[in-house]
Amino acid sequence: MTTALHGRRGLELTSATQRENALPDEVSAEHATRRLVPLLSGLISQLYPQFAARSVVSAPAVLAGIGIAAHGATGWSVPEQVLSEDELFGLLASVRWERKAQYWDGVAASANAKGVLNFSGGAKDSGGRVADALLRPDTEYGRKIRGW
Questions:
Q1: How confident is the prediction along the chain (148 residues), in pLDDT tens digits per residue?
Q2: pTM over the 0.90 mark
Q3: How far is residue 41 from each of residues 52, 103, 113, measured CA to CA in Å?
Q4: Alpha-carbon Rg for the chain in angstroms
Q5: What is 117-142 written as a DSSP string?
Q6: DSSP letter assigned to residue 18
Q7: Which residues of 74-108 are buried (b: 16+ CB within 10 A; e: fewer)?
Q8: Fewer Cβ in 10 A, N or C end of the chain?
């Protein structure tokens, strides 16, 4: 996940081919692999029921936002964004992943008059909003995706 590796900067890199020389400063390919493989494996394991249920977790903007949030647990994110894995998993555990407008309209998608969600904006348009909602439960969007 490009956003897990680069954080928010990864949103601009999602459509480009990633090369080893484009890694974050002070991060080698080996270091990135040793950290990201177990971290992302843990995320996939935790979110597997959501993937199997075809919830919003599979939408590109949501995946990008999850990657940005996961970047905080890599060890090379900026200090104000540092999270432990437990903190990250706790933030994700409180989210309502159902494909319902009441949770995701305006965050990762837009809803039509019947409440059907459209995720056409994609990762670059909505990934940052999703990350903000995941990382800041006390904000409007953070409360919305948690059903609070």
A1: 789 999 998 888 766 666 666 788 889 989 999 999 999 999 999 999 999 999 999 999 999 999 999 999 999 988 778 999 999 999 999 999 999 999 999 999 999 999 899 988 778 889 999 999 999 999 999 999 999 9
A2: yes
A3: 15, 26, 38
A4: 15
A5: EE-TTHHHHHHHHHHHHHH-TTSHHH
A6: P
A7: bebbeeebebeeeebbebbeebebebeeebbbebb
A8: C
Alpha helix (H) residue ranges in the chain: 2-6, 10-13, 29-52, 60-71, 85-93, 101-104, 122-135, 140-146
Per the DSSP assignment, residues forming a β-bridge with 118 are 110
CA angle 135, 87, 101 (to 5 degrees): 40
HSE toward the beta carbon, residue 76, CA cutoff 13 A: 18
In this structure, what token pair is assigned to residue 75?
A: 């060890």
Distance CA 147, CA 97 (A): 10
Q: Give CA–CA dist 28/69, Å, rounded.
A: 21
